[in-house]
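Notebook entry, structure prediction.
Reason for the run: the old model in the group folder had no record of what sequence produced it. Starting over properly, with the input documented here first.
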Amino acid sequence: MTLLPDKLAIQPFTRPVRGTVTLPGSKSITNRALILAALSPHTVTLRGALFSRDTRLMVTALRALGFTVETNEAELTITIGGRGGEIPAREATLEVGNAGTAARFLTAFVCLRPDGIFHFTGDEAMRRRPISALLDALATQGAEASARNIPFTLYTDGLRGGEVTLDASESSQLLSALLMVAPHAQSPMSVRLASTTVSRPFVDMTERMIAQFAAGPADYAIEGDATAASYFLALPLVVGGALTLPQFSTAGGLQGDARFATVLEHAGLALAVTQNPAGLEASFQPGFTGRGVTADFNDFSDTFLTLAAAAPLLNRPTRITGIAHTRRQETDRVAGAARELRKLGQHVVETEDSLEIHPQPLTPGAEIETYDDHRFAMSFAILGCHNLHGDGRPWLTIRHPACCAKTFPAFFSLLGSLHAGSH
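New structure, fully documented this time:
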C-alpha cells in the first residue's frame, strides 16, 4: 500500500469516470468466517479474504489463543485449523484495536474455555464503544470481567447453556457474538432479546453463515465488500460516467449493505446487471443533477455517510434516518457528518436519529476531519472528486487518510487509478 500523507488533497475528475472496480473481501464476512472456521472441527481455507487492520487483529488474536492460522496475502487466502469449540490457550492478551467485530466476537468466543484468563486491550476509541451488555449476558454463564468496557480481563468458566438475555439495542454484533458460540455450549443455548436490535441484516448474515459452516466446508468464499461498493456506486453520481463492479449483486448475497444501491437509484443512478463477467454497472449521465432522497438507514447504516457526503450535489434536501446507533461507532458519525458538511457550506438539520441536508454552494478549501474513522475518509474523498472549479483544481483535503486501512487499505490507490484511467 502506498504511504499516504497526513493531509491528502483529492484530485477532481475532469472527465466522466470509466473502468472496472474489483472489491476487497467483506470485512464483516471475513471476521465472522475466521471465528466460525476456528469453531469448525477441521481445517478451513477462506478464499477472497480481506487483509486489513481489522482482519489482521482477528488473525493475531486467534494465533495468541493457540490456533494455527496461515495467511497468503497474494492469493487472498487464510487457512485456519479448527478446534471444534476448544480454546487452546488458557491465558492470552488480545489486542482488538478499534475493531468492533474482533472485540465482541472474541469476548464471547473465549468464554468457551472453562478456566480462561484473557486480557482485552484496544484503541482509545474502542473504550467508548458498547460491550457491557454482552459482558452482562456472559456473566450469567459464569464469566467475570474486571471492567465494563475495554480494557478488561475476562475470567471464563465455559458456556453452560440455557436461556441468555441480551440487550443488543446498541449493536447487532453483540447478538452475532453469542449466536456463533451458542452451538458449542455445554447444553442447548437460546438468546432472548431484551429489546430490538439494530442492523438486523448483519444478524441474518451471521445466522446464514452459521448454517453454511455447519455443512462442514473445507473452503469458504468471501463475498466482495458491499459497504466498500457504496463509494464506487456513488462515484458516477458525483462525476458522471460508468463503473462496472464484477461479482457484485444487489440481491442474493449475505450483505444487507447491498441495499444502498437502491437508494442511489432513487437519486438518479442507473444500475444494470452485467454478464461478462457477471456483476453490476452503475452509470450517470454527465451534466445531470441527482435527486435528493429520503431513506431509513437502520438496516445498512455503514453506508449513510456515503450518501451524506454526496448530498450537496443533489437537487433537493436529503433526509437520512435510523442512524442514532452510529453515534457510538468508531466516532459519533451523526455529529461528525453534520460538522464536516457545515464546513462545506451546507445547511444541516441534526436530530438524535437523523440528518437533513439542504444543498448549498460548496465552500472550497475545507479540510475534512476523519476522526480516525475510515468511512469519513472514503465518503468525503468521493465528494472531492467533483470538479468544483471546472478546471481540475483540488478543493477538498482529507486529514489522516491512512485510517482507511481499517477495512480498505487500497482505497486511495484504486481511486487514483480510476482518475488516471478517466483522463
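Summary: The chain is about 30% helix and 20% strand.
The old model has been moved to the deprecated folder.
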